[in-house]
Write a structure and sequence with these properties.
Layout (H helix, E strand, L loop, with lengths): L2 H4 L2 H13 L3 H14 L7 E4 L6 H10 L3 H10 L5 H12 L1 H10 L4 H19 L5 H7 L5 H8 L6 H16 L3 H16 L2 E4 L10 H10 L3 E4 L2 H10 L3 H13 L3 H7 L5 H11 L17 H25 L14 E2 L4 E4 L2 E4 L18 H15 L2 H13 E2 L1 E4 L2 E4 L14 E3 L2 E3 L1 H17 L5 H15 L13 H6 L12 H5 L5 H11 L8 E4 L13 E2 L4 E3 L9 H4 L4 E6 L2 E7 L5 H7 L5 E7 L11 H7 L1 H14 L11
Parallel strand pairs: 1-2, 2-3, 3-7, 9-12, 12-14
Antiparallel strand pairs: 1-15, 4-5, 5-6, 8-9, 10-11, 13-14, 15-16, 16-17
Helix pairs in contact: 2-29, 3-29, 5-6, 5-8, 6-7, 8-12, 14-15, 14-20, 14-22, 15-18, 15-22, 17-18, 21-22
Length: 661
């Protein structure tokens, strides 16, 4: 049969394009051989983390240590030949090579001997962590300047006596020419890159902790990372887009935790006009309610005044957003319109409550959501400063390019918050812009509209609407990223009654813990196209109260909540300091981390994060690359390459044999 009758014209065009990459039978055959061999390798190691909340030092340490994987490899290789203290030194050297190296060198009586031993140990460890990778992949992460030498050492056969002198001379020459430090540092970096094949961040890098910007820098440098947006992330995304309500939400949280360093130094955003306005308007006000958490400084009132100024501005803008977005179903939460300014009460949930503070110098009771001229000027300045922060824009563009509301990867469904459900266990329906969505359709809609909030034309209706929607994703009752009835920020500030402070969780959280939790998890997985053995949901957002005996494994064993309280503010609540879910060829393991004191102590005392491992799932057989999404995509190319070979053999497509193998 003629090949041209076997394939349509579109497929023939594709084969002709494919022939540019593989111009001969030999080239196409070699690619098939490469793919088929690669598919037999064990799948790479994936790490899942969530709710980092600005805890940069702890995150960097866990990233550097591969969540303990690197120390496990060191002990596996050297337990019988290297003392425990030296193994600890080696681990810390790998985690922080530039900082640990000078300390270790200063202790050595015979530095050349130590260099030789350390290089050999790093080479052996690097070979161990590279065993799941193809040689071409390992080469791709080696530095250009000395990659060929490192490649020789990584693939050396030291038992080959014919080459023993050759390998010995390479190491001797590295030391002799004062290149040992550089090679040690490079081997340490390569080990860290190869130990973890892919990193998944299941939301919430921002807020609470001191330096989310440094975490973002680390993620940008990471080799293979993806991101599922958390509600604390989307509001920063909206702020970077210039959404006024998102900017004020970000500032409200930042001021509440007295974390101005991230705004002013991390992102170079000046708050000078805000500070001046707060002093002018609230200089004589009692701002005790707005005192930042844990702020015992003498000048606490300066931050508290800005906190109050931002809060009033925020509540005004929230009322405006709610008014122009009836789809949000947030009527009644526009609290500036619910206040009786004459008697100092507010309507909340159908009941009137006295206000804890009735000082509103910038509010016109006849139009309470309107901004004063001074507030308008300050807000315009803030919007300009957020939009012009190059570092913030770089970080947020990364979140858009690498991130999404959810991700299906290697049989796992990743999302930060919840799949909104009804009390009876059905997928909750929500109507936006005249259309009704639920389940996966709701997630897809949320992502489309969120992207408009950043990428639509400046000043367009889509840009404004998208900015409003990014704020809704932060706090809306049916936002799949938030998953609660309301964000009770106003209530906590102004109303004494704690009943008004409750943020009721979506029924989703009850169903994934209920008697039919396994069936609920299966229903959710099926909604996103995942069925069969080994499929799991990976969730963040709600801290697991491990100290009270709560298990992170829910949904009949098919859902793992990996918010273990990374942020120091949550340690007392959870009793731990975060989780890392590790997925490798042997299955799923959950690592529970204890608090991390500091980078300085880790380097000085070789203090590692103590972690406990729990096996979550073991597959019937060891997982190979052929079982992964990437492997299946590569395997799907084989029939096309086989058709290309047939086209060459039949002469339908001319073969270029100038460089045949």
């Amino acid at each position: 049969m003629n090949l041209q009758t076997e394939v349509n014209s579109e497929k023939m065009r594709y084969l002709k394009l494919l022939s540019q990459e593989f111009p001969s039978v030999a080239a196409a055959s070699s690619e098939i051989i490469r793919i088929e061999a690669k598919l037999q390798l064990p799948k790479g190691t994936e790490h899942f983390m969530s709710d980092l909340h600005g805890e940069n030092e702890a995150f960097v340490h866990i990233l550097n240590s591969g969540s303990g994987v690197i120390r496990e490899k060191i002990d596996l290789l050297f337990a019988d030949t290297v003392a425990s203290g030296e193994r600890s030194d080696l681990a810390t050297l790998i985690y922080y090579p530039r900082m640990k190296l000078p300390e270790l060198k200063a202790k050595q009586e015979d530095l050349d001997k130590w260099y030789s031993e350390t290089l050999m140990r790093l080479i052996l460890l690097c070979r161990q962590v590279s065993s799941k990778h193809t040689r071409s992949h390992v080469r791709s992460v080696l530095p250009k300047s000395c990659g060929h030498i490192m490649d020789e050492l990584l693939h050396a056969h030291f038992e080959d006596h014919n080459k023993q002198a050759y390998y010995d001379e390479i190491i001797k020459s590295i030391i002799c020419h004062d290149r040992a430090d550089a090679y040690i540092i490079r081997f340490c970096e390569i080990i860290k890159k190869l130990a973890v094949d892919r990193l998944h961040i299941v939301g919430d890098v921002f807020d609470r902790g001191a330096r989310p910007d440094l975490i973002m820098d680390g993620l940008i440098e990471a080799q293979n990372v993806d991101f599922q947006w958390g509600n604390h992330d989307v509001v920063w995304m909206g702020a970077a887009a210039g959404s006024p309500v998102c900017i004020l939400t970000v500032l409200k949280t930042t001021l509440a935790y007295n974390n101005l360093d991230i705004i002013e130094n991390g992102y170079g955003i000046s708050l000078r006009t805000l500070d001046l306005m707060a002093e002018h308007v609230y200089g004589n006000s009692d701002v005790t309610l707005w005192r930042a958490h844990g702020d015992e400084s003498a000048n606490w009132k300066e931050v508290a005044r800005m906190h109050k100024a931002v809060s009033i501005l925020l509540f005004k803008l929230e009322a405006q957003v709610i008014a122009r977005n009836p789809d949000f179903k947030m009527q009644g939460q526009d609290y500036m319109n619910q206040i009786n300014y004459a008697d100092g009460t507010v309507l909340c949930g159908g009941k009137r409550y006295p206000l804890k503070d009735n000082d509103f110098p910038t509010v016109d009771p006849s139009n309470p959501s309107a901004l004063s001229a001074e507030e308008q000027s300050v807000l315009a300045d803030l919007v300009r400063n957020f939009r012009e922060s190059e570092r913030l824009q770089r970080h947020i563009k990364f979140l858009f390019s690498k991130g999404s509301v959810y991700l299906c990867v290697n049989g796992n469904l990743l999302y930060h918050g919840a799949v909104p459900m009804t009390e009876s266990g059905e997928l909750a329906e929500v109507t936006f812009e005249g259309n009704t969505y639920k389940g996966k359709g709701l997630f897809d809609y949320c992502e489309r509209r969120a992207r408009k909030g950043y990428f639509a034309d400046e000043g367009s209706a889509d840009r404004t609407s998208g900015g409003d929607f990014l704020w809704y994703l932060w706090c809306g009752s049916l936002s799949p990223i938030y998953g609660r009835s309301a964000m009770t920020t106003f209530e906590r500030l102004y109303i004494e009654d704690p009943e008004t402070h409750n943020e009721i969780k979506n029924p989703y959280y009850r169903h994934i813990n209920g008697p039919d939790a396994g069936a609920v998890a299966d229903m959710i997985l099926s909604e996103f196209g995942l069925t069969g053995e080994g499929c799991h949901i990976v969730n963040g957002h709600v801290p697991v109260r491990a100290v009270e005996g709560e298990s992170p494994v829910k949904g009949g064993g098919k859902l793992i909540v990996i918010d273990g309280g990374f942020c120091r503010a949550y340690h007392a609540k959870t009793g731990i300091a975060g989780y890392t879910l590790v997925a490798n060829s042997r299955g799923l393991t959950l690592k529970t981390h204890q608090p991390f004191e500091s980078t300085e102590k880790a380097i000085k005392d070789d203090e590692d994060i103590a972690s406990r491992s729990e096996y979550i799932y073991t597959p019937p057989a060891r997982l190979l690359i052929r079982d992964t999404d990437l492997g299946k995509a590569e395997a799907a190319r084989i029939p096309d390459l086989e058709q290309l070979i047939r086209a060459y053999e039949l002469g339908v497509i001319p073969e270029n044999t100038s460089d045949n193998a």
